Amino acid sequence: MEELIEKYLVGLLSSDEKSDFERKMKADPKLEQEVEIQKQVTDAARISGLRNQVQRAYKGYQFTKVFKAVVVIVTAAAILGTATWFLTHDKEESDTPIQIEALDETVFMLNSDQDTVIETENGLILSIPAGTFGEGDYELKVNEAYDALQIMEAGLSTMSDSSLLETAGMFKLEAKRGGAAIDIAKGKEITAMLRSAEVDPEMQLFEGEETEDGVNWVKPKPLPKYLLTRDFADLDFYPPNYLKTLAEHGIDVSNKAVTDSIYYSFVCDLPELSEDRVIRLYNSEVRGEVDDVAPVDAPSRNSSSELMRFMQYEPDTERAIDDVPQDSSSVPRKRQICPASIQALQTAEFSKSFIATEEFTERLKYIFGTCNEEFLQVYVVNLDKPLWYSDSIIASRFGGSVWTAFYHQKLGNTEQANPGFAKLNQYFKRKRAKFNQAALKARQKLAKEFNKAEKEYRKAESERAKASDEDSKANFKEEYEINLKEACRQANITYVKPNRRYNQGYVMPIRSTGWKNIDRFAMEVTQSRESSSGTFNGKEVKLTYYTVNLDVPQSESYDFVKAYVIPTELRSFERMKKKDAGFTYQVNSLIEYELVSIAKKNEEYFIYKTQLEQGDKTYSAQYSKVSKE
Amino acid sequence: MKTQEIVEQIRQGNHKKLKKLYKYFPVVKKWLISRGCDKELARDIFQETLIVFCEKCRDEDFVMTSSVDTYLFSVSKFLYYNHARKAQREQAQDLNDLEIAASNDVDEWKEYESKLNIAERAFRELGEKCKQLLEMFYLHKKSMKEIASKLELRNEKVAKAQKYRCIKNVKEQVELLMNQA
What we know:
With 629 residues, chain A is of the alpha+beta class.
């Protein structure tokens, strides 16, 4: 009987069987009830499954909706004759809080079977190891937001819960294969590098959660402070004035082979320092105790053997050429940094260490000035430790504001544990080889001008060196503030493309797709954004909030209107809340804000800016036209 | 894609196109929110709309007289009116023929849904495997053979016996819930 009921319900009975069965049912109320329950059960199974399907489809849809929502609203409105009036009469902001199409978008067609390094127009570099996105071809979409207009137009903000963040840039990664979203495979990571004019050590990597009000930035992770190694050919290991002096003697200084061979041909008395003594000496300085054995975390075997070679290195005296000026290096002969030491440093064993960084060569310039090879040895011995460690040894042993300043930079080491990192360097190498090629051509063409420029460069270099001799901390702070102000001033009006020639930046491992933001907490504020007490710059202060309202006359005539309050001193974006025909927001009395509202009508952009005054106030937006560039 | 094609696919238990139908969601959502729904409710209503549509597709006599988007929009509207009526807020007005059709579909569905309430609750109490099996059979119209291989059951017969047990479980649960109510 069960089977018959089933067949009846599924519609497998012939019409004769069906009418026969229905007759039976009429006569037998118990059977009828049985059928009814069975029907309910099978219907429930179907509909419950359907609900799952519908929800699953929603999740898939959600992933792509940010890209499509606005387009869909436009096209669907055209189809839906009955619905159009709702749309034309409803000028509210789109329901999707983020208009991602306002951002620069780059789509890469990639293959996951091989290691890949890509660079976007804006200079975001991604190193993607093989297998990060499974196997085969896939599509990687990168959306980036760096400048103020883009950030505001896209409706992004820099809030983490209710804390204000200062941003160095935001980007979103999405990968797809065959139309379906894919995520980064477990245990794999992408290394991203965002180049920047200045690097703020407090910056962290945030992940974005899309919410009704935009993006909430969560899960901050500190960025590893890697030093970036360079090809030795790109680094200047010469003493100051060396090239200048050569040039004065009519030697082609653009030929590194020549300048190298001349430099390395100098004979030098190697200092009588033993490796052990150096290590013991400095470690006891730092640790405050004398230790007879070499420290456990001594340099690795490779650099150790290299070090031995370096200590025993005998320069080939035969190679000294007579026509080379003996005074080409300004340092006295007896006490100096041996060219042989410098040559030994520039070998493959050191190429992944901090020796091969611009940070180190910056220090080297000063080491030449000291004419004391012990300085050099401190770095060589402590290759496995962060750069600040060696800086601190020299600062404490020899004093000097230069090294104190270096120490305060708190620079780390290179990150070789990260396989993607090596690829980044290779990439750089290729890129820089190109630049070098171009530079070389230019040099050959303008040899004379170059020599002059080189002189000026040296002069500037020595002036810069003098400047950094001063109290670095005060200097740094001042510069920092000026830069921030400048950045904000520029950001509010004009679009400044990140300079691609910056050689520093933020390096970060990425283990999931989605929104990423490089930020630091600008200040902690209370959840309610109401007047209360809190902390600012580490001090307990009373916080007062003002209510700022913005009226937007004829707001319905614009395609969209967005309003932000932007602290004058921070690269942050707080999005004002919509209220009636305008906006409202609670602002912190301790922070100086500028109110910026942008609007768009017929592909034209309008902007209204005003400095916020203290106290509750209502402003009225008076837009003026701007060009997007 | 042609309307009838979508209907046909869903009728045969293929629900891959559901995701595509979400492209009509933003318009519907906008309208719903303009009527005072929150985002959650707007989503629920649209999802229910899709269920009404899928159920409608099962009816072999069902022929779409309008485009899918128009139909979905109408159904969403009536599901909303239905919801609002309960909250005594809004009455549907100025209906055209098409919307009356959608209105009927919604009324039908609502009646049916309330009847199914208990059975659905019972179904949700089932073990995961049972749920999968019944879904595959009744929703996706898979054969017993396919089901057996997907659920790693020895053969058709085992799958069939399993299905019988699952249904029996739901029935018992339904009776239990009915007695409670």
